[in-house]
Design goal:
Structural class: mainly alpha
Distance between the termini: 33 Å
Strand content: under 5%
Shape: globular
Helix content: 40-55%
Number of helices: 11
Order of helices and strands: EEHHHHHEEHHHHHH
Amino acid sequence: MAADREDTSSTAGVTTPNGSKKLSRQAFEEIRQWMHRNARPVELSVWKYEFERGSKEEVLAELAYYQNRDGGFGNGLEADSWNPHSSPYTTVTAIHILRNVSFTDTKHPIMQGIIRFLESGAYFSKDYWFFSIPSNNDYPHAPWWTFNAESNKVESVGVTAEIVSFILNFTDPGSSIYQKATQVSRQLIYRLKTTDNYGDMGIAGCCTLLDTVQQCGLADILEYDFLQDTLRKLVYESIEKDICKWVYYGVRPSNYITSPGSRFYSGNEAWIHQELDYLIDTKPEGEVWGINWSWFQNNEVYAKEFAISENWWKAAKAIEKTKLLRDFGRLDSGG
C-alpha cells in the first residue's frame, strides 16, 4: 500500500516564544473551510464533533447510512473499497469512528447490529476474521482489497485484533461470542510468539488489544506483561526513522502514539515531535494534506472512483492529523 508523494509546501506554522512550532489559526481555518466544502457528511460530522461542538447523535445518524441489515458495514465507508456488502474490515472502520467519539451504548441499534454481524460468523475462519472478502472484486477498490485467501492469513491479524477487542469490551462474558474472542486472542498472542509477520495493520491492532486487556481486567488471562513488552519493542522497531521517507506510505509514530498519554510515548518522544513539526511544515496553503498512496494498477480502470476516494481520504486524514496536533498542544490559540 505504498506510494505517491505528498505536497510538502507550507506556510502553516507559527513559532511560539518558547520555540514550539504550532499550526497557525489561518491554517486551521483553511482546514475547517475545506472540510465544510468537500467532506462527505460522515467525516464532516466527526470533524464537527471534534472541533465545532458537534454531537455524537449527528455522527451516529451519518454512520447509520453505511450499516447493512445484517449489522455489518459496507457501502464505501472504507474509502478504498466500494463494496456495498458487509465486511469485517469495513465494520472495524465503523468501530473506530464509534471509539473516537467515545460511544459505548451497547443497547443502541448500531452497536447491536455490529454484535449481531460478528455473532453470525460471517467471514470468520477458524481463528481469524477475513481482511478481504470475495465480493470486493466486483466493485471499485484498491488492489490490496482484492480477495486473496493466502494474504488474508497474514493481513487478518490487525482486523481480528480490533474485532476481539470490541467483543471483549461490549459483550457478555458468558456469551459464546465472548468465549470465541478470548480464544482468538490467545491465538493472536501465540502468533506474536511464533512469527514476525503481522501484516500492515497487525501491530496497531494488537496495541488496541493490549489496551482492552488492561481495561477489561484480563491481564492474567491474556498475558498482559508479554503483550506490553513485545509491543513496545515492535512499535519502536516499526517506526520509520528516516524522515525523508515520510513523504511516502510508511509507518509514522502517530500510527501508535496519538497523545502524550500514550503508553508508547516514552522512548519515542523525539520521533512523534518530529512528526508534529513535519505535519505543520507540509500542510499545503489553502488546502488539507494530500494522501500518499494510490490504487496503482487499478488507477486506470477506476480513475473516477479513485479521485472520489482520494477526496474522502483527505477529509478523514485532515481530522486525524488536526486532532493529533490539538492533543499535543500544537494548535495556535484560537485554532
